[in-house]
Amino acid sequence: MEIVEGIGIGVAVILGALLILFARRAVVTRSGGIIRLGVRTSTMLDGRGWSPGFGRFVGDELRWYRLFSFAIRPARVLFREGLAVERRRLPEGQERLSMPADWVILRCTSDHAPVEIAMARSTVTGFLSWLEAAPPGAVSPRLASQDWPAA
């Protein structure tokens, strides 16, 4: 009888954890504007260290949440200012086994440290548009350095 109770408690704990994970995702994604996004958290081994998750655009921030985490706060925040795409490539070697075939890897530089992010090819265009955009009435730092003819 103790074995059955132990199994029942174990199943209840697992179901409770799954319920919390789904509730967390619902809370984080309730405002919309999310994309599937992988971030390379470790570069110790070639092609390894990718962590699945989803990103949410909030103003000048791209907030990345781990897929399998109980945290409501983002695991990483990328700020539009100071972020630039350095290189774009397709998954290589072991990476092809850990992400969908239509994903692209972007190596970005930021004020804090370089970061590699992976997303669907169809999402890259939206990400690059967000990266180049400036709020209404502001001048994009990427455009401010250019000499524009006087009107």
Automatic annotation (TrEMBL):
Keywords: Membrane, Transmembrane, Transmembrane helix. It comes from the Bacteria. It comes from Micromonospora reichwaldensis. Pfam families: DUF2550. The chain crosses the membrane at residues 6-23. InterPro entries: DUF2550. This is DUF2550 domain-containing protein.
